[in-house]
Every structure is written in structure tokens, then in C-alpha cells.
Amino acid sequence: MLKFKVVNLIGETITVQKALVAPGIQKVDFDVSSLAKSEYFILISDAETREIIKTVKFLKK
Description:
The protein is mostly beta strands.
């Protein structure tokens, strides 16, 4: 199980979503319509060990 956490530029958690995903390329949808225009990070981590696997930066326009 993976945990996807969206944080803003000052490190505040905006939303957290957990998903059971199979190995390989996967798609996880986030509704960002309520977010203010800014830069955000998605921290993808193992839900059990909390080890961060990947960090993705995105810009909400």
C-alpha cells in the first residue's frame, strides 16, 4: 500500500490518500480543483514503513 501526501510550499499537509497498487505503471487521480494557485509536492511513500519513495512537484495554475 502506498500513501500519497500533497503538501504546500511551507510543508503543510493538504490531503492524504492511500492506495493499494500493483507493481508497474499506475494511475492515481487527485482532485486539485479546490487548491489555491501555487506550487505543491506529492510525497509518495510506503504506508507501512513511511519511507519516501518519490517526490513530485506540480504547479496549480
